[in-house]
Amino acid sequence: MRNRGALAAMAAGAAALTVATVVACGSGPAENVGADEVTALASATGTPAPSASATTSGAGTSSVPVSEGTLPSGGDTVPPTRLAIPAIGVTATVRPVGVNPRTNEFEVPPSVDVIGWYRYGPGLEADAGSVVIAGHVDSADQGKGAFFRLRELDRGDTLTATGADGKPRAYRVVAREEYVKSKIPLDKYFARDGKPRITLITCGGPFDPATRHYRDNIVVTAVPA
Questions:
Q1: First-to-last C-alpha distance (Å) of the chain
Q2: Domains along the sequence of the chain with CATH
Q3: Average pLDDT of each block of 10 consecutive residues along the chain (225 residues)?
């Protein structure tokens, strides 16, 4: 994501989950892996997903499910506060974020070292749905971001998300996908239904120096280990 952060086109990167230095973030993943497994996870029976009511911008316009701006019901939501991904050297603080009321963009923390948990979705205690965490890939001002190497993750890699309750939870990567931002299926990745999973998002693909946005989003899906 770029410094302005937005999970914007579901984005996570330079101004809207767009991220960036003036060059493309490496060459990106060699290929998508695990797409069928992600579809199976999302289609499994679970809690009904909220309706989509916010839009995000970037390379296109998409909807982000926020359930009319309400937080998940109940007082037992466990937000992630720290994320560790040994395979790519990540140990990052996680902050709760939402949607910018002025731009309708997913707000990623401005510091590239800090990543954002989509607080309108499930927490770590949930037995259904996608826990969305997004971060910058880099910034022209700050350099490499926490998710600079996210595109290197592959099936079988592990990560640990620690919640506000102090409990670490282990996950295993099952998929890595790349989408043009205007084409990313947000309902699948922001859903509160389906099997429990963590969805990590940042920017990737070619960088457009004119718009200062990356074209694509990198999406990594992990399930409880």
A1: 27
A2: 35-42+77-224 (2.40.260.10)
A3: 38 35 43 92 63 32 44 75 98 94 83 96 95 94 96 97 97 97 91 96 91 91 97
